[in-house]
Amino acid sequence: MQKIILHIDMNSYFASVEQQANPFLRGKPIGITGKRSERSIIATASIEAKKLGVKTAMSTWQAKKICPSLILIAGDPEKYSEITHRFNKLFFEFTPFVQEFSVDESFLDITEQAKDWFGAVYLAQQLRERLREECGEWITASIGIAPNKLLAKLSSDLVKPNGITLTRSEDAIARLDSVKLTDLCGIGPRMGKRLNDLGIMNFKRLREFPLEELVDEFGSYGTWLHEAAHGREAFEVNVEEEDPKSVGHSYTLPKDTFDPVLMQRYLLGMCEKVAWRMRRDGFVANAVSIYVRYGDFSGNGKQHVFKESTADGLRLFEIAWRLVDSVRDKSKPVRLLGISASHLTHTSESKPTMSIFSAGGGSAFGGKKEQKHLSVLSALDKIQSRYGSKSWTRASLLPIAFQDRASGLGYDHEL
DNA sequence: TCTGGGGTCCTAGGACCC
DNA sequence: TCTGGGGTCCTAGGACCC
């Protein structure tokens, strides 16, 4: 059956949220960066900044050079996801089939509600109006309407800001033929280059290209490419909220370093954060992976799978540091460290002896000392959820906590 | 002091089991 | 005798997304 899918894409999302919250920023070129503005990039540029040549993912320094009047603001992810939650709730007024695709994008299946393309455009207009009422006029969205997610997403990109773009089934081929291969979500720069190398420069040529050859070259991705070139896509709006597969943090150090003690401190801080997020969301992990990036931007990673699940930052750290120490090329200075916990299971599903929440625990999981450690952790979690993320820190992390505060770098060593 | 930080999925080889 | 073949897990790395 013919489906009608909306893709809603918030325009310059993080920047819009800041402009909505602070009238002083409205109409001005602003850029949202990572926690620290040095050694960071522009995560989102306001419309005004984009007009002056600032692009997403540009280093802050480059952006400042191009646009000296640019106002840099450190992003506040919690604030943004709170507003994300607000507008997604609003979408449920229109249909029960809402898929949160990212912090600033959602898919809606409005087949039933819209009946036809006219109905879809009308609903999109209504939705835009409700969004303005609910979130404020500085937070706007571009909406794509199409028979599947792939085309809806492609369409929402075409008119910004605040546009509504319709691609009916019968217009799908013409729409694809009017854009570049890499405009499609799923074809990145690498794949674009590989296609070009095969003489495929556009969707028309991709459609004509033999399916078997695409499969030979790209495997199952070849089938996807073939279908996409015909404007077809099998994936439906996925209403289920899926559990995360991994929880991680990475951090670019203020300066490249050879100092293992400094690396250990940052790594411990990140492990504690990851562990805290897992406990908060009720997960334990069975694997840890780390990533080291060097000053020359090369890097390597290593993973370790273990038998006993954990949500304890110190245990994550012990494993993570062993991995870093074994994989690290000691002749190169380290620029970034990353750690990620995966093979996640719900605390309730894991064996009680492995759960840090199991009061009293079991005999299998460590001795008295281990139990005491776990009860300390859960007490600290309570303190943190009541008084906030800066309410406690490990003594070993104090040196960088103070150092960053003093220099205004503001990396949160909340743990 | 060019190049953040949060993720997902896929591939391909080796270990190991039946 | 001449080294099959399927399945799953682990690991490293690559590509993609916002």
TrEMBL record:
Cofactor binding summary note: Binds 2 magnesium ions per subunit.
Binding-site positions, Mg(2+): 9, 104
CDD domains the record matches: PolY_Pol_IV_kappa (cd03586)
Name of encoding gene: dinB
Organism annotation: Candidatus Uhrbacteria bacterium RIFOXYB2_FULL_45_11
Keyword terms of this UniProt record: Cytoplasm, DNA damage, DNA repair, DNA replication, DNA-binding, DNA-directed DNA polymerase, Magnesium, Metal-binding, Mutator protein, Nucleotidyltransferase, Transferase
Protein name from the UniProt record: DNA polymerase IV
A Gene Ontology BP annotation from the UniProt entry: SOS response
Annotated positions for site Substrate discrimination: 14
Co-factor(s): Mg(2+)
Catalytic residue positions: 105
Localisation: Cytoplasm
Subunit details: Monomer.
UmuC domain sequence ranges: 5-188
Keyword Cell membrane: no
Alphabetized SUPFAM superfamilies for the sequence: DNA/RNA polymerases, Lesion bypass DNA polymerase (Y-family), little finger domain
